[in-house]
Amino acid sequence: MTVSQKTRGGRRTWGLHLVLTVVGAVMAVPLLYAVLSGFKSTDELSRNPVGLPESWVTSNYTQILGSGDFWRLIGNSTLIAVGTTVLIVAVSALSAFSFARFAFRGREALFTLFTMGLMFPFAVAALPLFLLLRSLDLLDNPLGVILPQAAFGLPMTIIILRGFFRQIPGELEEAATLDGCSSFGFFWRVLLPMARPALGTVSVLAVVTSWNNFFLPLLVFTDAQWWTLPIGVQQFQGQYSAEYAKVFAYLVLAMVPALAFYSVAERQLVGGLTAGATKG
Amino acid sequence: MTSTFLPDKRTGPGAGSPPPAAERRPPGRARRRALHWLTAAGFQLPALVLFMGLVLLPMLFALYAAFFRWGGFGMPSDYIGGENFTRLFQDEVFLGDLWRCLVLVVLSLAIQLPFALAMAVLLNQRMRGRAVYRMLFFAPYVLSEAITGILFGMIFAPDDGFADQVLGKVGLEGLGGEWFADPSTVMATVFLVMTWKYFGFHMMLYLAGLQAVPRELTEAALIDGASAWQRFRNVTLPLLAPTLRISVFLSVIGAIQLFDLVWVTTAGGPDHHSETMAVTMFQYGFKRYQVGYASAISVVMFGISLVFALAYQRFVLRRDLEGATTTMRGDGK
Predict the structure, then answer these.
(1) Which residues belong to any copy of the ABC transmembrane type-1 domain (chain A) (predicted)?
(2) Is residue B147, in this structure, part of any structural domain at all?
(3) Quick one: how far is CA B89 from the chain centroid?
(4) ipTM score of the complex?
């Protein structure tokens, strides 16, 4: 590889960069277009859809940021994402600990049951789940989204954490036991602190999945008070369908939190996805 | 407390068999083992309750409700046998859903994944700006599918939308059109948006796989005089196979459950031409209150996922999953 790079490296890198720049442009242009359109008035957007704004209108963005509705959506999405993540990590860590450090009858059957959960798309269970939540009176209740999201996130989280817990040497557990640690004490005081990177990875996955979920909140929340960001964006677009510029500004602001989160947690996210996919 | 909870057998990787029984039994051994089992099971309890209650139980209920004519209120009582299923397989919209699912799978396997692989190979080389490209290509994956759909719904708006405007400006009006609004282009447009959003994810998987290909192997092939294509085809690709299989699997599962993107852009239209199984299920279950019929759709989706997953695991994935699910070892497969 190194030889060919030296001999005809210049020409090849040039072509390579051309391809990547074109693809990069296709990826970036829709997002940039939305940002720029948010700075136009709807009038200008229909006259001048492609170019830079003639005068930069900030009112689309500031109006949204100044409204309580937008921040309530952010608040709801955050509450649900945090609730889901805490629940998923707590429950999965206990289960993964038991899978990784105990030998017990039925262990492999149970683990297979959980891994089967990976195979089934959420959409399959959406309708019966809705009926169940309705009979439990969990509609228009954040728990109605948090609990199912946690349940569907368990398989992946358990698989990743089990793999990590297994790598921690057994001598540590023996030492902890000799020092008078119970099983739970070892789990809580030794294993969890050591597993911080893995816990970070699965938390990031859970946050992103919850934040972007659309189907479940669509079913569960009829009351606008509980809407999450994707639902709110869809409603806003329906309400202001004629005012393109406003909708673009709304879309951009709705994308910012996810992109910001990605930029700080890229390592965990990519690590988690690739680990999940290669191990699951 | 401490000694009773001490696990009597620690589990190294792959230790799936129960401890040997043919040992002399010290007094209290049975009690200790029972306690040990209870401890292990106690840790499993919360996960098991959550999973059983919210994943398995609803599915079983759907299987039950699919045999009734039922509006969704009270308990189902009007038993109609397999009528929902026979109706389903004569329903042109549902048969269309199956066909469109297949189309999306084929397009993904033929275009999206090879494209992702090509990008991964390009970005696997040492070069300036590599991290930026990688981040940019992957970024759409973290966006909500619903929000992405709304954005592209506006970009592909007929005439006024960005896509048609740009094509008009550069003299390619012929390439523009009605996009989501035209029955003959709507699926292609949906696929285009899916590719924009998801190819970066598959690229990341492939990059992780490529990084695991030992350098010595490609270098040895180079010394043996293999061309770049031969090295890729005969060294890299076989080693990447496990990653490719997982990626294909995720892609198919994604096509089976596609909902958000279609719902916010076309809601299945125009005239059902972009409807998916999940959209049809949603229409019947939540708009028309034919919950028994919608349950039958859920059951068929479940059946398709199950058959696909089992067949794929049996014939394709088995070796790859063995590391993760050590289950195969115990029962002699």
Answers:
(1) 74-265
(2) yes
(3) 24
(4) 0.89
